[in-house]
Structures
1.
Amino acid sequence: MHGAPLTLHNSLTRSLQPFAPVDPDKGVRMYSCGPTVYNYAHIGNLRAYVFVDTLSRVLRWKGYPLTHVINITDVGHLTSDADAGDDKMEAAAKARAQSIWDVAAHYTAAFKSNLRDLNIDDPTRWSVATDHIAEMVAFAERIAPEHCYELDSGLYFDSTTVPDYGALAGGHDDAGEGRIDPVAGKRHPQDFAIWRKTPPGETRQMEWDSPWGRGAPGWHLECSVMSLQYLGAPFDIHTGGIDHREIHHPNEIAQNQAYCGCSDTGARFWLHNNFLVDRAGKMSKSKGGFTTLRTLTDAGVHPLAYRLMCLSAQYRSELEFSADNLLAALTRLKRLVMTVAALRARSAGDGDATKAAAYRERLDAAVADDLNTPRALPVLDELLADKKLTPADRIAALADFDAVLGLRLGTIDRAALRVRPAEASITAETIEARLTERKAARAAKDFARSDAIRDDLAAAGVEVMDGDPIGWDWRSTIG
Ligand code: AMP
Ligand code: ZN
């Protein structure tokens, strides 16, 4: 490990703690709750993975070998986070008249493609829930005698059989309990399904045999089972969105404690990203009409602008999504890319990154402080603008910022940032040709013609930007 000591906020203690791996020989072992693949990810979901990617990058950059598992939930997540409603996958497959396996394959591929567009690195292992049914049954068999009880509807975990149930959630208040839908016969409102029996007379697309009858696992089981299988216990870091702090992760912890017969929670650090919020309410996968990465690219916004928007807030702060915030990030990204291009054009030979060591240290200090990316971004601006360093030295020092922030500033070029809006009726080549024509008209003082060209372009959804400080001559107004 090099640089400033890494401090992370542990939801278990609600405090910042110095991070060190449980077993340094094993490097850092991390598990991240993955998507439920019954629909496309919305941009709020993707914020969770930009956070996880930033954490992974910081860990690797600081010299820790990383083993990272992300699961794909293709069974068990019900339309409520508790035990009521249909399985989201079953419901989606029924609505689309498709097999669950086709639905899962489609949305898994779409999710991975979103991650690639956001320059999010693949984990060491993608782990699919339905590939682990036998292991889930074996886990349930081991904890059942002391921790579970059977009802007609399935096998339930008795939350009073483990110490301090729900400590992660900070105790269950009335509002919290109100979210847990009643299941007939449950001993305590917080008890949760380990195995859900298929009701008599019904068949489900996804069902398996078990000692408790034909059915499907409860949602929380998969994460305990797959993290234990691939990382061992206790492992180092478990991540998820802040909603998981209330039900899903307390239930994982209860299962882990039952399995080990100890009070260990399974992971040393539980990290939760706060939500991306949208006043227009377009952040619910189950409601439809939500904002996806595709919505942004269809409007002409490069995906890395969304990544930069995420990085402009610390992961534990709520982040508001708005067109203004997104366009501000796009402008900031363009400015960075243009600055880098200009420096590269002025660079002669290989630079020396050690000349910029002070910037590296400031980057390190910012991200070692619970991933404070908003503090790291101005350091990058300062580095690029530092006239005491040669352009080549500044470019060489960029590698550290790219490794940590993942903005691809070293490789992306200005043209690649120009995403063509889906509804655009005009090609980039035509726009450039008309702008050249307009420039000639202005040079000849033919202002009527120059204005006419500007109006034509405006009608096609293109705003001409005279005197734009960062040198963009047009922008799309579609979206
Ligand atoms: P899901 O696909 O619903 O299982 O969620 C995938 C991940 O996205 C989980 O870690 C959630 O906690 C997280 N998440 C859901 N909504 C948001 C949001 N609006 N902002 C940030 N993270 C979210
Ligand atoms: Zn999980």
2.
Amino acid sequence: MIYDLHTHSNASDGFLSPQALVERAQAKGVTALALTDHDTLAGQAEAAAAAAQAGITLIPGIEFSTQWQGRSIHIVGLGFDPAAASLKQGIERQAASRTQRALTIGERLAKAGIHNAYEGALELAGASVLGRPHFAQYLVRCGAVKDVASAFKRYLGAGKIGDVKQLWPGVEEAVGWIKAAGGLAVLAHPDKYDMTRSKLCQLLGDFREAGGQAIEVISGKQVNTLTDKLARLAGQFSLAASCGSDFHIPNQPWQELGAFGKLPDFCQPVWQLLPGHQAS
Ligand code: MN
Ligand code: MN
Ligand code: MN
């Protein structure tokens, strides 16, 4: 079995449709997949149908944006009931937060002489989650900048007029949504937050206290020393271990579907905690 429990489709910021993602996962030998789009379940139904066709297991998934001590932290939910009211409320809250931020970006850009940016970005986003990349595309389209990179450099990047901080819920709130829906809460990519070891331990303690059950011991291709370090931390905090590619786009070999090492033997794999798991 190859479990890939962290992937994205074009329902959020991934490149492939949910169906194309599932087909690629099957081609790469993945046998159990979680589609974990940012703050949305919009791709789940299409992914489930494609998984049934492909003969692979689809585990319901999502990746929530949260904040902890002023930092942006991602919490993956796995194996929940997708129809649960708590998830629906959580997703609505996240959408409202994104909309508020996007409106503020639009107002700020208007002050800089760029009008209708919110409406333009919304149209460019279509069915996917509205974000800064859509504002960047709009700035290119209306001729304010020559390309997306310049859009970030002049208007949207850190410290620029369109750099608006987002207000995300606390870690414990998102963990609560996932658990109330019968799912498992997993701390995503612990190594990507640029924290000291003591800060990370503090986060792990708070996460576990909130009801979190696992951490991503593996996130894409990574060195064995990192896998080992995270596996030991998981053990130290009595947390199970998850693994995933964090796939977004083809041709990024370090995020290829299913293409990462195995969890160390001493870890408890998170899938053993999933409802309906058959211990083997
Ligand atoms: Mn992403
Ligand atoms: Mn993430
Ligand atoms: Mn991700």
